[in-house]
Write a structure and sequence with these properties.
It contains 12 helices and 13 strands. The chain is an alpha/beta fold. The strands form 3 sheets. It has a 9-stranded mixed beta sheet with strand order 4-3-2-1-5-6-7-13-10, sandwiched between helices. Strand 3, helix 3 and strand 4 form a beta-alpha-beta unit. Helix 1 packs parallel to helix 2, helix 1 runs parallel beside helix 11 and helix 5 crosses helix 7. It is globular, with a radius of gyration of 18 Å. Calcium ion (CA) binds next to helix 1.
Length: 311
């Protein structure tokens, strides 16, 4: 049976690619898309989600407006990485889809209470919406099946500060609440996602998809590749969020280590760093299954095959 999933996202170029991957995957029963601030403002991210479900042929999936600000810190956006509108050079037609009246955190609560132990939260943006749901209804922590979260950097350097990854950096207090909630938690950090560099050669293999899909992937990733080349000396672009989504389809694409992970909420130097207790010094039970190695070729093949299936 397909896995019931809520997709919490801040589209964002790689978020958009993850959404298309979900749209092409019968293993996933996408119940809701909840949108947060992150790569750009919540308003622009929401607008992108409304257009992307039409592009992906999943306009029936309800979309919920989420938090427009982090819990504590001031808002950050990453328009140098994702473009002014959040989708690079891609321009999508305006959408007939409207957001649902409920707010994202209420939608998360409702869906979990309706389907206890069945809902997976796939979180690929700042954790504000999920933290708000847990703060409002703490009992849902016992009813979530699991969380798969793209976030953090264990050995890899940060991409937002020298030590911290962007999703955690955007709302470290929210991430801290969620990772400490006792929910089965899979972390997909930069250590694995930055091995998944999507290149022009990969792009050329997306040759059977519908023209609009090909055009979108080409135009969005062109901007993303330019950013990676100019700011990180990487040729291609890291498709972080699609790797987290792909684990719903094939969990063996990565190998995991169980760690007790904490979020630095204090230090001016390493605030928002995800710290793994490698040698069990804190004598705490692990709270996260952390993806540490990835079979890049198998993941890229899966991603390209699914894009080509979007007809
Ligand atoms: C994460 O931050 C965002 O820019 C991407 O969409 C991804 O979710 C990578 O650090
Ligand atoms: Ca994202």
């Amino acid at each position: 049976m397909a896995e019931k999933v809520i997709f919490d996202t801040d589209p964002g170029i790689d978020d958009a690619l993850a959404l298309l991957l979900l749209a092409a995957s019968p293993e996933v029963d996408l119940r809701a898309i909840t949108v947060t601030h992150g790569n750009t403002s919540q308003e622009k991210c929401l607008n992108n989600a409304l257009k992307l479900v039409e592009l992906g042929g999943i306009a029936n999936v309800p979309i919920f407006r989420g938090a427009s600000e982090p819990l504590v810190k001031e808002l950050s956006v990453a328009e140098e990485t994702h473009g002014d509108g959040g989708l690079g050079y891609a321009i999508l037609p305006s959408s007939a889809v409207k957001p649902h009246d409920l707010l994202a955190h209420d939608a998360i609560i409702n869906e979990i209470e309706k389907h206890p132990d069945e809902i997976t939260l796939l979180c690929v943006g700042p954790m504000t919406n999920v933290a708000l749901a847990l703060l409002k209804r703490p009992s849902i922590a016992r009813k979530v099946k699991r969380i798969i979260s793209m976030g953090g950097a264990i050995h890899y350097p940060g991409n937002a500060t020298p030590q911290s990854e962007y999703n955690v950096y955007c709302d470290p207090e929210a991430f801290d609440i969620v990772i400490r909630a006792g929910i089965d938690f899979t972390l997909v950090p930069l250590d694995v996602t930055y091995k998944c560099i999507f290149t022009k050669e990969h792009l050329a293999r997306i040759d059977k998809a519908r023209d609009e899909i090909k055009e979108f992937v080409t135009d969005s990733t062109r901007f993303y590749m330019e950013f990676h080349a100019s700011h990180q000396d990487i040729h291609g672009c890291a498709i972080n969020d699609p790797l987290a989504a792909a684990l719903l389809i094939d969990s063996t694409l990565v190998t995991y280590r169980d760690y007790y992970v904490t979020i630095d909420l204090q230090s001016p130097v390493s605030k928002a760093k995800t710290i793994a207790d490698h040698y069990g010094a804190l004598k705490k039970a692990p709270n996260a299954k952390v993806a540490m190695e990835v079979d890049v070729e198998r993941f890229m093949n899966l991603f390209i095959t699914r894009m080509n299936a979007l007809q």
